[in-house]
Amino acid sequence: MNADSRKPKKRPAFEIGEFEVEAGTRRTVDLPVSVLSDHTPVSMSVHVVHGARPGPTLFVSAAVHGDEIIGVEIARRLLSVDSLDSLRGTLLVIPIVNTFGFHSHSRYLPDRRDLNRSFPGSARGSLAARLAQLFMSEVVARSDYGIDLHSAAIHRTNLPQIRVSPSHPETLELAEAFGAPVMLVSSLRDGSLRQAAQKHNVDILLYEAGEGLRFDEFAARVGVSGILRVMRRLGMVGPRGVTRPKHRSLRGGSSTWLRAPAGGLLRAFKTIGDSVQEGDLLGIVSDPFGERERPVTATSGGLIIGRSNLPVVNEGDALFHVMQVDPDHAEPALAGMTAEVGRDPLFDEDEII
Fold first, then answer.
1. Which has the closest alpha carbon to 158: 314, 252, 273?
2. All domains of the chain, ordered by start, with CATH?
3. For the chain, which terminus, N or C, has the lower number of CB atoms within 10 Å?
4. What is the pTM of this model?
5. Which residues contact 112 (CB under 8 A, 6 or more apart)?
């Protein structure tokens, strides 16, 4: 047997669009999406890290809704992590899926469609449908797993949470490995990326954290460390610098939005991460003259995982999102997770990565 026959075979190049990325290299490729009315080309940029050694393919996407920018920052930090230099498998990072909405600070595309209600899309459909089809054919079809990064809508904020609709037991294990403060098992929505991907046998972890058009340091740290934990669980990166969560995510199967009993001015007394008991006063809605006040009270015990940041409300507006969980257990567990994130060695440097 000669020396050449004993050498391990090099992994094939990763193909995406019209590009090839050689094993052991990384590059950003631009997939054409459309041309604006002023002839400016628009593309979807995908950063491909194609490891020298075999392993699964994971995609991490952000800004499916253009105003949910916390995922863009998480993606930026993820791509600077040293452990990607010895990656097993392939990582696809799409920091900005909806370029149109990102530039206009909008959730939607120019045709006012919601991209996350347009999957799996069509190459001959609306602009949203065409972008959805491109993402499905070039990213989802080439992946084994996915993590989609979101925030609350504008003027709302979410406690960092993983939402999952598992079709395989392994997906729940990955959600637990992520280590977000909260894990919700939620139903799939028609036209969503999660629903379309699941039909292609690709389960997605949906990360929700922070507020639209805002950065949130805690949300960013939880997101980066969670993705790395999932990659460690999949064998894509080694254990160095990737801590295992010391506290289990608070798991809830149901949640309720408490709504404004009347229009007026909201004075909120509770925020995300606070535990509540049934009957607790969460806020008061009063008219501008202070002549009439209406309380907003908890209808059950639980944890506030989302809330509105707007003090001016209309009757029926969603104000507080409460997940049903033992409130006596929730607050100390969340305090432990918050302290754990602060001690994570990944963020020990003088500068945020």
1. 273
2. 12-250 (3.40.630.10), 255-323 (2.40.50.100)
3. N
4. 0.93
5. none
d(CA 345, CA 17): 37
Q: What is the rounded distance in angstroms from the CA atom of residue 162 to the CA atom of residue 147?
A: 10
Q: Which residues contact residue 139 at a Cβ distance below 8 angstroms, ignoring those fewer than 6 apart?
A: 16, 46, 59, 61, 92, 94
Residue 28's beta-bridge partner residues?
47
Query: What sign results for the dihedral spanned by CA atoms 78, 242, 175, 179?
Result: negative
Assess contact for 260 and 241: CB atoms under 8 A: no
Determine whether 37 is exposed, middle or buried from the number of CB atoms within 10 Å of its CB (0-12, 13-18, 19+): exposed
Confidence band of 12 (pLDDT split at 50, 70, 90)? very high
CB 337 within 8 A of CB 247: yes
Asked whether 49 and 26 are in contact (CB, 8 A), the reply is yes
Residue 6: which pLDDT band, with cuts at 50, 70 and 90? low
Q: Give me the chain's average pLDDT, please.
A: 93
Residue type, 178: F
Amino acid at 51: G
The span from the CA of 287 to the CA of 54, in Å, is 63
